[in-house]
From TrEMBL:
<dbReference type="InterPro" id="IPR002509">
    <property type="entry name" value="NODB_dom"/>
</dbReference>
<feature type="signal peptide">
    <location>
        <begin position="1"/>
        <end position="21"/>
    </location>
</feature>
<dbReference type="GO" id="GO:0005576">
    <property type="term" value="C:extracellular region"/>
</dbReference>
<dbReference type="InterPro" id="IPR051398">
    <property type="entry name" value="Polysacch_Deacetylase"/>
</dbReference>
<dbReference type="InterPro" id="IPR011330">
    <property type="entry name" value="Glyco_hydro/deAcase_b/a-brl"/>
</dbReference>
<feature type="domain" description="NodB homology">
    <location>
        <begin position="81"/>
        <end position="356"/>
    </location>
</feature>
<keyword id="KW-0732">Signal</keyword>
<dbReference type="GO" id="GO:0005975">
    <property type="term" value="P:carbohydrate metabolic process"/>
</dbReference>
<protein>
    <submittedName>
        <fullName>Poly-beta-1,6-N-acetyl-D-glucosamine N-deacetylase</fullName>
        <ecNumber>3.5.1.-</ecNumber>
    </submittedName>
</protein>
<dbReference type="GO" id="GO:0016810">
    <property type="term" value="F:hydrolase activity, acting on carbon-nitrogen (but not peptide) bonds"/>
</dbReference>
<keyword id="KW-0378">Hydrolase</keyword>
<dbReference type="Pfam" id="PF01522">
    <property type="entry name" value="Polysacc_deac_1"/>
</dbReference>
Length: 356
């Protein structure tokens, strides 16, 4: 079993004048803004407008992501109902169908770019000139690697050191281009497919970079800033009613959790959640396993629960989402964890491979 992943504990302090201010941030994740691209990663233009119109009418404060994360890390309050908007993959339809709506509403946003197709002039991807234009209206451009690889997979015959060098190039080459073409970098990375491991996260931390996975949840001061959560808002997650619940989510009040590592096997996964002390509705905690329904909960202590899947995950990425209503019943605490179940022909970086 992996070592516990510790989440720093402690109360957020603010003056009474800031009592309604927010010390956490939900972040929305989009890819395509188009009705004719793969549905799983797309939101249609009319759906995207519906989302943005709702944020405006409901009084959400769309914030600049780098600035908001700096404030959260420093323990400084965000506006009440703060939220951030992100896109992955630098598709041109973001510029054509999403940017006009964002500009109309005055919403800042972040696009994580994979520079390989951009540098090749691929017609489906943004150009540097378009990015420069978007920057003038609140756009921030960040790192999504050069070629959008599965970052934990080895190429045929590749050694561990060669893999490390390749991943360093995937990240550093984009940082160089951001600085060369736009004059700056926010030093943020979105992992392709949301996949990372402790080794990659440590490398990014040493470079002073912030990084994002694809597990759902809310960012606060005690989050792992090399593996931050976001809420997907495309495909079957584009439904506005379910999106409203996520926009009102809070970070799960955890001290730590254990998840047995990044990889799943032919055995069902489990994780242990250790809650902070406080007046929480722990009896209303519910966890859901992707493709399986509710997980089994076994309370080991008053503030410690084991979450058990009933079946093994199929090959690919699997997750467990846990939610719990707050005392008001108007918000849900939210936590998600992701595992990778590799097939026999996929050479993933594992502890065994590293030792060899």
């Amino acid at each position: 079993m992996s070592l516990p992943k510790t989440l720093a504990a402690g109360a957020f302090l603010c003056g009474s004048a800031l009592a309604l201010a927010q010390d956490y941030l939900p972040i929305l994740q989009y890819h395509h803004v188009d009705a004719n691209t793969p549905r799983a990663t797309s939101v249609a233009p009319d759906e995207f407008r519906e989302h943005m119109d709702y944020l405006k009418s409901a009084g959400f404060q769309v914030v600049d992501l780098p600035q908001a994360l700096t404030a959260i890390k420093a323990g400084e309050p965000l506006p009440e109902k703060a939220v951030a908007i992100t896109f992955d993959d630098a598709y041109r339809n973001i510029y054509e169908n999403g940017f006009p709506v964002l500009k109309e509403h005055g919403f800042p946003f972040t696009v994580f770019i994979n520079t390989g197709p951009i540098e090749k002039g691929h017609s489906s991807f943004l150009t540097w000139a378009q990015m420069q234009e978007m920057e003038q209206s609140g756009g921030v451009f960040a790192n999504h690697t050069v070629s959008h690889p599965y970052m934990l997979r080895l190429k045929d015959g590749e050694t561990h050191e060669q893999w490390r060098a390749r991943m360093a190039h995937e990240v550093n080459a984009v940082e160089q281009l951001l600085n060369d073409k736009l004059g700056h970098s926010p030093k943020m990375l979105a992992y392709p497919y949301g996949e990372s491991n402790a080794e990659i996260r440590e490398q990014l931390a040493e470079q002073g970079m912030i990084a994002f996975g694809q597990q759902s949840g809310v960012v606060d001061q005690h989050s792992d800033f090399t593996n931050l959560p976001r809420f997907p808002a495309a495909g079957h997650y584009a439904n506005l009613s379910s999106l409203k619940v996520k926009l009102n989510a809070k970070p799960m009040p955890l001290l730590s959790f254990e998840d047995q590592g990044e990889f799943a096997s032919h055995q069902p996964v489990s994780m242990t959640l250790n809650f902070q002390g406080g007046n929480y509705r722990l009896k209303d905690l519910a966890c859901y396993v992707a493709g399986q329904g509710k997980a089994k909960l076994e309370w080991l202590e008053a503030n410690q629960v084991k979450v058990q899947a009933e079946q093994a995950f199929p090959v690919g990425r699997g997750r467990i989402n846990c939610t719990m209503p707050d005392q008001s019943g108007r918000h849900y605490y939210w936590f998600s964890n992701v595992w990778i179940h590799a097939s026999a022909d996929q050479a993933y970086v594992t502890e065994k491979i590293k030792k060899n």
